[in-house]
Amino acid sequence: MDSLRMIRIFDTTLRDGEQSPGASMNVEEKVMVAKQLARLGVDVIEAGFAYSSPGDFEAVRRIANEVEGPTICSLARARPEDIDRAWEALKGAPKVRIHTFLSTSDIHLKHQFRMTRAEAKRRAVEMVHHARSYVEDVEFSPMDASRSDPEYLYEVIEAVIAAGAGTVNIPDTVGYAVPWEFGGLIRGIRERVPNSAQAVISVHCHNDLGLAVANSLAAILEGAGQVECTINGIGERAGNTSLEEIVMGLRTRRAFYGADTRVNTEEILKASRLVSKITGMIVQPNKAIVGANAFAHASGIHQDGLLKDKTTYEIMRPESIGLVDSKMVMGKLSGRHAFRQRLEELGYRLSDEELNQAFERFKRLADQKKDIYEEDLESIVSDELAKIAERVTLRSLHVESGTNQQPTATIELSLDGQVVKQTGHGDGPVDAVFRTMAAMTGTKAKLLMYAVKAITGGTDALGEVSVRLEEGGRVVSGHGSDTDIIVASGRAYLNALNKLAYWASKDAAGLQKVSLI
Ligand SMILES: CC(=O)SCCNC(=O)CCNC(=O)[C@H](O)C(C)(C)COP(=O)(O)OP(=O)(O)OC[C@H]1O[C@@H](n2cnc3c(N)ncnc32)[C@H](O)[C@@H]1OP(=O)(O)O
Ligand SMILES: CC(C)C(=O)C(=O)O
């Protein structure tokens, strides 16, 4: 086989992915995801948009300083104050990039930016120069490129490369492109922009018409050298190009594409589960690569073939994305040393305090559940690592429900250090828990989503509950796990309330009303 081109994977789960409604992550959660992205071996992590909020600034700063391996990038509008802020967050870290953007389509320039083409080109060049005054590695995106006049687009690209942009990223911002057309646009850039070989041509596609992955692959065939993508394809509106589909598409058909990536594919499933858990965005069972059914063969003829030879119906090995038979890892009698070692084998390094808390949870779980699997440990650890300062915690929960009985919950909480207890009712046991907790905390938050899933098989499986709450325009997700799904639901609800309180304390320097009494 001729030598393969290595396509750079630019992960934007923490920036565009976070633009999915309800997917906002706190700083600890972002650092956790970034560490998993580093284990996955992506080339660039877009850690946030430093100017957009203090939380994003802090996430970019911490990830740039704490995550080793990938280049860490911040988005910035084509404005000096955005670029200055990106630099403030990135400075001092070893491998950093500033990604600045400005639209090139007449629709955007006329209606949103109220700029002429000449003004936009001048601003793009000035801002690339400005970013280059701070860092070597500058990326420029002509937003809405796929709806721009190609002749003007080529001019802008030539100018920003001359100004020092090492990567030019072509966004299909509204998911309008068609693969043949989008591939043609990349070919046009390579053929018509005289200095295009001096920069990496990247693509950033949205999935409004379900074509983000197809458009990105078409671009690779025409010479794109970087793909921007997100874990599970999350992102603004219908989402972005899904990282796992691009990476496994190239790995599985690399002879066809003549290209591959440096991604350690065995970390894909772990990354997918982590992002799903943290954002509360559940992966559909039939989702390519990471869906629960992606490697499940249900029909007799397929099973017959597989038993005779796996290649009959399997184009990828499940192990290649990290899907292995759940290993029973620990039990009730395991000690702290074995626990730490097992976590390290799974890729988690915890501080002594985090380890002690996770170990306590593990022991409680081991009392309720005979066999503890890798997924159970991951769930416990990600809960512990993602913890934010908690204003409200669960002390006890008792629920009565059944036929001919109004579901009743009696709950004891610690609220800002005070113990409070209350009994309340609801339409079902979970509703009774949520209503009682809402009454106790005084929250006006609206429940947008409730979902429960079993982490491992069996009726003693750890149940994982995700909720999404909205209050004052802010949407957060909360997660909780327990062998009792009512308790898991209560934990998830409180986790979301603590996040609302966390964001309220960050917003407007804490001026927004915090709804916990
Ligand atoms: C396609 C994408 O995904 S782009 C990234 C989208 N991400 C986000 O928007 C992140 C969250 N956004 C925010 O927190 C806020 O929008 C902020 C902090 C960035 C800006 O907030 P505000 O100053 O209140 O401005 P607001 O959001 O209302 O309007 C955006 C302004 O930025 C301008 N703008 C938008 N994109 C760019 C750009 N690439 N370069 C320069 N200016 C831009 C708009 O023209 C508008 O300017 P105007 O006020 O002069 O009309
Ligand atoms: C900032 C750019 C790359 C973007 O997110 C888009 O155009 O969708």
UniProtKB/TrEMBL annotation:
GO terms for biological process: L-leucine biosynthetic process. InterPro entries: 2-IPM_HCS-like, 2-isopropylmalate_synth_dimer, AIPM/Hcit_synth_CS, Aldolase_TIM, LeuA/HCS_post-cat, LeuA_allosteric_dom_sf, LeuA_bact_synth, PYR_CT. Mn(2+) binds at D16, H204, H206, N240. Residues 393-517 are annotated as: Regulatory domain. Pfam families: HCS_D2, HMGL-like, LeuA_dimer. Residues 7-269 form the Pyruvate carboxyltransferase domain. Belongs to the alpha-IPM synthase/homocitrate synthase family. LeuA type 1 subfamily. NCBIfam families: leuA_bact (TIGR00973), PRK00915.1-2 (NF002085), PRK00915.1-3 (NF002086), PRK00915.1-4 (NF002087). Homodimer. This is 2-isopropylmalate synthase. It comes from Nitrospira tepida. The gene is leuA.
